[in-house]
Write a sequence for this structure.
């Protein structure tokens, strides 16, 4: 058996009681932290909770060496894989589960809280009004990738909110910040001039969602680029058409000024 267990958002305390029980009764416990960051996690505390040693796997271990690292063991024993957030929000875990199923390995999923599900609650925006989510990649050579701009535009035309995830390369210790992501979008706006991510556009930045030092700040893009959000992980939300309760929530929970909300009302 191979069990995928979500660890939640910030530290080892985010694992559910069901997930903890499953990990305790597994013969082998593995974890990966390349799909997302858990800034408050202590491996020592996590191993104490689980009651056994935990082997941390790299991206290559799961994507290229899964057969030798995980699947052969899971054919004969009970194996648990601990992952940040909710296990099946990452394509790599869906692929691993499919590979296990093809080898007739029984699989189960114990879900956890992810940034995708927590974004609405942290800002007061209505969850059913979110459109397609998108990720802004860490810039390589050449101009910024325009796909995020296109998704924000499409959702905005429908009055929907856009959740923008910011790329991380955990193995290299590189995380895209809210400031750098917004500057990418401003550069695309300057090129395309379609009034999608202009300086006065309303956005909400969220840092370390679920942590005790979480920061949630709404405002115009030009103001958020100079705000200190602290360490990663970061996400951005571009609100669409706002219900009056959502507008009130952004003022209360994200310290958003009334003037920044006007275009979305």
């Amino acid at each position: 058996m191979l069990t995928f267990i979500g660890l939640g958002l910030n530290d080892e305390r985010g694992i559910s009681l069901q997930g903890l029980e499953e990990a305790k009764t597994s013969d082998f416990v593995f974890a990966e932290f390349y799909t997302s960051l858990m800034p408050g996690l202590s491996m020592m505390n996590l191993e104490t909770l689980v009651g056994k040693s935990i082997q941390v796997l790299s991206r290559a271990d799961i994507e290229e060496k899964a057969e030798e690292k995980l699947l052969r063991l899971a054919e004969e024993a009970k194996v648990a894989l601990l992952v940040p957030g909710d296990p099946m929000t990452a394509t790599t875990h869906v692929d691993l589960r499919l590979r296990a199923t093809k080898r007739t390995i029984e699989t189960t999923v114990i879900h956890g809280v992810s940034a995708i599900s927590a974004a609405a609650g942290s800002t007061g925006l209505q969850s059913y009004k979110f459109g397609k989510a998108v990720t802004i990649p860490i810039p390589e050579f050449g101009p910024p990738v325009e796909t995020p701009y296109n998704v924000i535009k499409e959702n905005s035309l429908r009055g929907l909110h856009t959740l923008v995830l910011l790329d991380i390369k955990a193995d290299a210790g590189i995380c895209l910040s809210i400031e750098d992501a917004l500057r990418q979008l401003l550069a695309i706006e300057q090129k395309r001039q379609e009034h999608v991510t202009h300086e006065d556009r309303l956005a909400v930045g969220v840092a370390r969602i679920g942590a005790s030092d979480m920061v949630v700040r709404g405002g115009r893009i030009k103001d958020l680029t100079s705000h200190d959000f602290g360490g990663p992980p970061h996400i951005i939300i571009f609100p669409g058409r706002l219900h009056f309760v959502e507008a009130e929530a952004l003022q209360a929970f994200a310290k958003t000024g009334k003037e920044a909300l006007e275009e979305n009302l």
Notes: The chain has two domains: 2-110, 115-264.
